Amino acid sequence: MIFSTAIWSRDFNHTVPAMTVSAATRIKLQSLRDQIRHHNHRYHVLDDPEIPDVEYDRLMRQLQTLEEQHPDLITSDSPTQRVGDEAITAFGTVPHKMPMLSLDNAFSEDELRNFHRRVTERLELAEGAERLRYSAEPKLDGAAVSLLYENGKLVRGATRGDGSTGEDITHNVRTIEGVPLRLISYGYPSSLEVRGEVFMPKAGFEAYNDRARAAGDKTFVNPRNAAAGSLRQLDPKLTAERPLDIYIYAVGHVEGGDLPERHSEILDQLQDWGLKTCPERSVVDGVEGCLAYYDAISARRDSLRYEIDGVVYKVDNILQQRKLGFVSRAPRWAIAHKFPAQEELTIVQGVEFQVGRTGALTPVARLEPVFVGGVTVSNATLHNIDELRRKDVRVGDTVIVRRAGDVIPEVVSVVTSRRPKKTRRIHLPKKCPVCGSVVTREEGEVAARCTAGLYCSAQRSEALKHFVSRRALDIDGLGGKMIEQLVAIDRIQTPADIFQLQHDELAEMDRMGEKSAQKLIRAIEASKTTTLARFLYALGIREVGETTAISLAAHFGNLDDIMSATEDSLLAVADVGPVVASRIHAFFAESHNRSVITRLIKSGVRWSDSEPQADADAGPLTGKTFVLTGSLSSMSRDEAKQKILALGGKVTGSVSGKTDFVVSGEKPGSKLAKAQKLQIAILTEREFDNLLNDN
Ligand code: IVH
To answer: What is the pTM of this model?
Structure first.
């Protein structure tokens, strides 16, 4: 796929027989060099890359291979002859006393094992000798900087530049709160150069882009470019406004003092002098330890507050590092174990509009299948019509598609330089593609919607899928495909019909049998005993998510009072504003919604009512903030979260000075260490249980 989209294909010489090989090669070299220069400029100077890293690497590799085959054609200005950033003339330059190196990459377990074998062989470690220890750290996705402290005072900050010379960004790094202007404690070398990564935490990046979008300003494509771009602001006041942070991961030139003999201890020491190091770093044993660390960090990747693109392993013992030395621009004692690329290039074959539960039309790009983020992707969301227009995605375009973690794949941008002459623009359909009803767009709304409500089979299917989903009535075994089938044959129209389903008819459906039908009937029966909050959430009232459902249930205690509540009395509920109040009121005012509810209750759907809490804000855990770490044996994290919310507490993802309790289950993560450090109350599972039961 990729080579066919590149300007030159591998079999160029066959397709252009009229040219001599060397003329063709010259043109190909020229084209690759021009493309790479163009992308270097977009990336390093404009901080606005147009293609994903994997594609850039492919272009570079094609050029390298061609130059290896024709060394006589290498020119001194070829991009292969200077791998690094373009120096920005607006800043002064700084020669690095010790070069800022890059890292070799391992893309698979095999490549990592090879690295480990090379290291052990070079160190002549006897088999069975003590296993090699590595310092394992996340590979932060930001911009590398070097900071120089003279007698404990920050005197200079520099970018990596081309590795030997960087740009002077002292004024800008001084604005980053995580960069100490003075070291604390004592014992630091009189001249201490440290290296680290400046990054923009995910939350800050999102917030920054939201603001930029609202103001009609340019957004950043990813947190790494946001960090690099912010560091290169000519006006430090602008850098200061960006939410930047830093983790130090190495030392550079050191004079007038000693450092410990292990990399991990050096980082501990730097931390004690007030420099920030990554809290997720760890020391691991041998290649097995590295692999376990890789798995653990991969699993936590989405919940980390910063973006990473792999992990780095460094031989921990500094004497061993010295023995191993360097090859060209990378150390032999370290390697980056990269995650599969999350962004790839592919071609848009079509755009369809999907109709969701509330009738919202979502444009979805049908793509030439591409392997990205560890899976093959052939559909990607374009979110809404405004996004589609902003990105100007057309059928036939080459686009960047991104798949990060569990998030649905999305089209990030179009590579306009690769736009073919003939493309097809996409327009918002006037009629619903499923039921043919009119599509409208309310004032101030991003979504265009089908106006047919539950008469539209797509909306009906989605509403039913929501009703049976895990956080709603949780009917195990009633999957999306099954619901679509039942809707298609008009067997179910409202959630109440689910409870009329019979064993025999289910057993006859596609991919069902006696056993699965029996299981499903049992699951439907079991789902009847639920909670008021789940039931409210399951109804799929617009704007009523789980938290609002919990607040409503706690505030009123029973369904009747919610159904008859006025908009004013709904406004008294925690996190219910005028829009939500009017949605709830309108939902219960509809007679067909009321009759579905009556039928559901007649079918046996039940929960226990509770005493209304006059002020839902004032639960026994009101004002208390919890962080959960590790796994609990008696409930899932979700359940624990729901219980805390129901009692008025708050649950956040990371430990800070504002955290009141950290609930620590089996195999807690670094949050536990952080809680200990900040002297925050830590609850065992049993203590947490007691707290819930006492309240
Ligand atoms: S160590 C001599 N550790 O990756 C070793 N680098 O490809 C020098 N990076 O430009 C690098 N996280 O900006 C190291 N924990 C980490 C890192 C890390 C991110 C970046 C760094 C460097 C690039 C090397």
So the answer is: 0.69
